[in-house]
Amino acid sequence: xxxxxxxxxxxxxxxxxISLPGCVGSGGGGCMGGGxxxxxxxxxxxxxxxxxxxxxxxxxxxxxxxxxxxxxxxxALVRR
Length: 80
Ligand SMILES: [Zn+2]
Prior knowledge:
Layout: H1 2-18, H2 21-25, H3 34-37, H4 47-50, E1 54-55, E2 63-64, E3 78-79
Antiparallel strand pairs: 1-2, 1-3
Protein backbone atom coordinates (compact mmCIF):
# COMPACT_ATOMS: atom_id res chain seq x y z
CA UNK A 1 0.00 0.00 0.00
CA UNK A 2 2.80 2.39 0.81
CA UNK A 3 4.48 1.52 -2.44
CA UNK A 4 1.59 2.79 -4.47
CA UNK A 5 1.57 6.07 -2.59
CA UNK A 6 5.28 6.51 -3.12
CA UNK A 7 4.91 5.63 -6.76
CA UNK A 8 2.15 8.19 -7.13
CA UNK A 9 4.36 10.84 -5.57
CA UNK A 10 7.17 10.01 -7.96
CA UNK A 11 4.84 10.13 -10.93
CA UNK A 12 3.49 13.50 -9.86
CA UNK A 13 6.95 14.96 -9.44
CA UNK A 14 8.06 13.60 -12.79
CA UNK A 15 5.01 15.07 -14.50
CA UNK A 16 5.79 18.41 -12.89
CA UNK A 17 9.34 18.28 -14.20
CA ILE A 18 8.32 17.12 -17.65
CA SER A 19 5.66 19.78 -18.01
CA LEU A 20 8.13 22.59 -17.31
CA PRO A 21 11.05 22.00 -19.63
CA GLY A 22 11.22 25.60 -20.77
CA CYS A 23 11.35 26.88 -17.23
CA VAL A 24 14.39 24.85 -16.36
CA GLY A 25 16.24 25.70 -19.54
CA SER A 26 15.45 29.35 -20.04
CA GLY A 27 16.79 30.57 -16.73
CA GLY A 28 13.40 31.40 -15.30
CA GLY A 29 12.78 34.43 -17.47
CA GLY A 30 9.67 33.52 -19.36
CA CYS A 31 8.29 30.57 -17.54
CA MET A 32 5.20 32.24 -16.21
CA GLY A 33 3.95 33.03 -19.69
CA GLY A 34 3.66 36.73 -19.01
CA GLY A 35 6.71 37.77 -20.98
CA UNK A 36 5.53 36.58 -24.34
CA UNK A 37 1.76 36.58 -24.44
CA UNK A 38 1.09 39.54 -22.18
CA UNK A 39 2.00 42.48 -24.32
CA UNK A 40 0.57 41.76 -27.72
CA UNK A 41 -3.06 41.12 -27.07
CA UNK A 42 -4.77 44.24 -25.70
CA UNK A 43 -3.46 47.26 -27.55
CA UNK A 44 -3.10 46.02 -31.11
CA UNK A 45 -4.55 48.61 -33.48
CA UNK A 46 -7.39 47.49 -35.70
CA UNK A 47 -6.53 46.59 -39.27
CA UNK A 48 -8.41 49.61 -40.60
CA UNK A 49 -6.01 52.02 -38.92
CA UNK A 50 -3.05 50.61 -40.79
CA UNK A 51 -4.68 50.82 -44.22
CA UNK A 52 -4.00 54.19 -45.79
CA UNK A 53 -6.92 55.72 -47.57
CA UNK A 54 -6.35 58.44 -50.14
CA UNK A 55 -9.01 60.88 -51.11
CA UNK A 56 -9.36 63.92 -53.29
CA UNK A 57 -9.35 67.25 -51.42
CA UNK A 58 -12.14 68.48 -53.66
CA UNK A 59 -14.10 65.27 -53.85
CA UNK A 60 -14.11 63.52 -50.47
CA UNK A 61 -16.21 60.75 -51.90
CA UNK A 62 -13.37 59.85 -54.25
CA UNK A 63 -11.20 57.48 -52.25
CA UNK A 64 -8.55 54.97 -53.11
CA UNK A 65 -6.42 52.58 -51.08
CA UNK A 66 -3.45 53.61 -53.21
CA UNK A 67 -2.01 57.05 -54.00
CA UNK A 68 -3.07 58.46 -57.32
CA UNK A 69 -5.08 61.20 -58.92
CA UNK A 70 -8.71 62.10 -58.78
CA UNK A 71 -10.53 60.89 -61.89
CA UNK A 72 -12.84 63.91 -61.71
CA UNK A 73 -10.42 66.81 -61.31
CA UNK A 74 -6.97 65.28 -61.65
CA UNK A 75 -5.70 66.44 -58.29
CA ALA A 76 -3.35 64.22 -56.36
CA LEU A 77 -5.12 62.16 -53.76
CA VAL A 78 -4.12 62.99 -50.21
CA ARG A 79 -3.66 60.48 -47.45
CA ARG A 80 -5.96 60.71 -44.51
ZN1 LIG B 1 -11.31 65.58 -57.30
